[in-house]
Amino acid sequence: MRGRNWLVRRVERELGPQLGQLRYVAFSRRIYWNVLAPCLLIGFAFGAIAEFVSPIRSTREAGHFNDPAFFVITSLLTGLVLWAMTFLGSFRKLLVLDGGIVAKYSQKHTRLVILWAEIVPGTLKAVTTADGTDPERRLVARRKVSLGAGGSYAVVFQARDTFWIFASNQDPAPLVTAIHGAMNDAGTPGAAQAAAGALPAVVLTGRMTLD
């Protein structure tokens, strides 16, 4: 199965007795290219400061740009390291198992497990926008939590008095189908109602109130 890496397999082993087998892995990815230039500028700013306060290798005096190549390389690397830190929120997955959904599973203390019985029937929906922007920004609710990194599509459902949103650039149909199939096979009350109206994706032209 695509996306079934060692971390996913670990979750399967730990939650298998409770939730059963893995059915589907949904991906969400967003690379923050717009912050690359600011991170590089910050890297050069740090590099410039270091030139005035850090001694060069052969003396105890500050470098004062005596080695331009070293200054450029270290500044670039500093900026790239800062930009790479944004990757922590750039890649997300949503796991569909026999018994429910699992998200934020990289650490046990952040792991989120939502059982099928907790999902309010009829709130499962796929949405998108005509201009390709992130539909999550147009969804309005008193309580909503993002599970994805962003994208032009989103799957949303209500559980525990909260609307959970998984935005991605993937076609939402396989995710919705996997959720519906698992709920139906588990005999979840309201499974048919949960699937009704979930597809095709609703095209948002303005703000949509979920409550």
N to C succession of SSEs: HEHHEEEEEEEEHHEE
Mean pLDDT: 86
Which word captures the global form?
elongated
Proportion of residues in extended strands: 15-25%
Give me the side-by-side strand order of the main sheet.
7-9-8-5-10
Radius of gyration: 23 Å
Low-confidence runs of at least 5 consecutive residues? none
Determine the N-to-C terminus distance.
36 Å
Q: Number of helical runs?
A: 5
Question: What profile does the largest beta sheet have?
Answer: 5 strands, mixed
Overall structural class, as computed from helix and strand content, comes to alpha/beta
The amount of helix comes to: 25-40%
Strand segment tally: 11
Q: So what's the oligomer here?
A: single chain
What does this structure look like?
With 211 residues, this protein is an alpha/beta fold. The chain contains 5 helices and 11 strands. Helix 2 packs across helix 3 (68-84). The radius of gyration is 23 Å and the shape is elongated. The model has no long low-confidence stretch (mean pLDDT 86).
